[in-house]
Amino acid sequence: MDSLIVRGGHRLDGTLRASGSKNAALPIMAATLLAQGACHLERIPVLRDIATMLTLLSSLGATVSRAADGAVRIECDQACEVTAPYDLVKTMRASILVLGPLLARHGKAAVSFPGGCAIGSRPVDLHIQALEAMGAAISVEGGYILAEAPHGLVGTDFTFDITTVGGTENAVMAASLANGTTVLRNVAREPEIIDLVQFLRSMGADIAGEGTEMLTIRGVPCLTGGTYSVMPDRIEVGTYLVAAAATGGRVRMTDIDPSVLGVITDKLRSAGASVREGEQWVECEMDGKRPQAVDVTTEPFPGFPTDMQAQFTALNAIAQGEARVTETVFENRLMQAHEMRRMGAHIVIEGNTAIISGQPSLQGAPVMASDLRASASLVIAGLVASGETRIDRIYHIDRGYENIEGNLQSLGADIQRVSG
Ligand code: EPZ
Asked: Which end of the chain has fewer CB atoms at under 10 Å, N or C?
C-alpha cells in the first residue's frame, strides 16, 4: 500500500485548476442508466471511486470508455443486468445510487446492502422508504436489497425524516421515469443535487425546485443521452484553500464559481485569511500570518459542510486560540484528532465536539489515514509540521483527490508518494 511522505515548513504558493466534483459525478454516472442513447460526461475526475462506478456500470452491461481528454462515454442501452454485487458495493457505498435508476428503468434491482464505514453506520433506510412510497416492493435478503416495481413506479408525495444527499439523489432519479408527479420534501440542497437535476433535465426530465427543500418531478416516458460537464469539486477546492491558510501561503483555484463554496470562504476569513473572488476563481492568502481559531459546526447545505470539518480541525490545530469543532452529520467523524495528537496537537473530544487548543507548531510523525477527508487533514497537518510525516493507507485519499502529491508539489510542498 502506498504512503505519502510530507516534510513541512513550506508556504504553499501557486494556482491550480479545480477538478470535476466526485460527489456530482457519481450520481450523474448512475443516472446514465436511465438514458436511451450514449451520455458524454466531461470533467469527470480520475479517482478510485470514479473507477469503481465505471466498473459497476460495466458489470451492469453498460459500455463505458474514457477519452484522452478525460471525458467519459457511457451507453446503457444494452445494460440489462440489475445486480450490484457485494464485491463492488463494499468498496464504495455510493454504489447504492444505482438502486433508483435500475428500478425506474428495469422495474427491478438487487443491490448489495452497503455496510457502514469509518465515519458512521451510513444507513439507507430513507432511500428505501422513498422508493417504497413510489410503489416499489423492497426486501433485504442475503445481504442484498431486492427491489421490484413490475408495473413501474408511481408518483407520490414523500417527506424525508432527515436530510440525505444520497436518498434525495436516488429518489429524484427514480421519480424521473415514474408514472405521474412526485413531490419530495425536506430534500438535500447541496450544489451536487442541483448538478444532478440539471443533468437529468438535459436528458429530458421534468424537475423543479432544485436547491430548495422541495422537489417536484413529473415523470416522463423516457430520457435520452447527451453531453454534460459536471460541476467543479467544492471540497477539493476548499481543501487546498485551507492548506494555503494553514501554511501561511497563497493559493488560487480556477475554473470554479466561488458561490458554491458557501460558508467555507466565510470561515477562512474568520481565520484571518484574505479571500479574493473572481467570476471563475477564488484565492486564499495568509501572508505568513498564523491563523486565528475558528469554530465550526457541520450541517446540511447551506450550513458548514461535514466534508470540510477535518480540514478545519487541522487548521485549528496550529491556530491562535481555542476552537470548537462540532460534527452533527455523522456519528464518528472526529477520528483525525487522534492521529493529530501524535503530532503534538492539543485536542479533547467531548461527545461530537473536538475542543482544539491551537499550538505554535506540530511535529512530524507516522500517522494513518482512516477515511477520505481525515486523510486530507493529515496531509495539511504534515504540511505545517516540523520534520517528516508519513501517512499510511492513502488509498483513502486517492478516492477523492486527483494527483494530490503532484498538485501540492506544484504549489511548493515537499511531498512524495512511496510504495509498499
Ligand atoms: C454524501 O454522502 C457524500 N457522498 C458524503 O461525502 C457527504 O459527507 C454526505 O453526503 C453529507 O454531505 C457522496 O455524495 C458520494 P447523507 P451520503 O445520506 O449521501 C443519515 C466524501 O467525503 N442517513 O446525506 O451517504 C446518514 O447516516 C463523502 O466525499 C440515514 O439515516 O450522506 C448521515 O448521518 C463522505 N438514512 C446523514 O443522514 C439514510 O437512508 C447524512 O447522510 C441516509 C442517510
From this structure: C
Q: How many angstroms is it from 119 CA to the middle of ligand 1?
A: 10
Sheet holding 296-297, edge to edge: 296-297, 322-326, 353-357, 346-350
Q: How far apart are CA 215 and CA 185, in angstroms?
A: 7
C-alpha cell at 316: 485549528
Asked if the peptide bond before residue 302 counts as cis, ω within 30 degrees of 0, the response is yes
Dig out the grid coordinates for 160 from the structure: 424525508
| Strand, helix or coil for residue 182 | strand
Q: What share of the chain is helix, strand, coil (3-state, %, to 5)?
A: 35, 30, 35
Clarify whether 76 is annotated catalytic.
Answer: no
Instruction: Give the C-alpha distances (Å, rounded to integers) separating 372 from 49, 316, 357.
Output: 11, 19, 24
- pTM of this structure: 0.97
Query: Which residues have C-beta within 8 Å of that of residue 224, sequence separation ≥ 6?
Result: 35, 36, 37, 203, 204
Q: Are 420 and 29 in contact (CB under 8 A)?
A: no
From its phi and psi, is residue 209 left (phi > 0), alpha (psi between -120 and 50) or beta?
A: left
DSSP states along 106-145: HSEEEEE----BTTB----HHHHHHHHHTT-EEEEETTEE
- Ligand 1, pocket-test mutation among 306, 329, 333, 370, most atoms within 8 A of CB: 329
Q: Among the options 39, 76, 80, 117, which is catalytic?
A: 117
Phi-psi region of 401 (alpha: psi -120 to 50; beta: other; left: phi over 0): beta
Neighbour count for residue 27 (Cβ, 10 Å): 28
Residue stretches of the chain with pLDDT short of 70: none
Q: Of all helices (H) and strands (E), which one includes residue 276? A: strand 274-278
Ligand 1 atom nearest to 126, measured from its CA: 40
User: Would you put residue 94 in left (φ > 0), alpha (ψ -120 to 50) or beta?
Assistant: alpha
Q: How far apart are CA 307 and CA 327, in angstroms?
A: 10
d(CA 328, CA 108): 35
Please identify which residue in the block is written with the cell numbers 465536539: 353
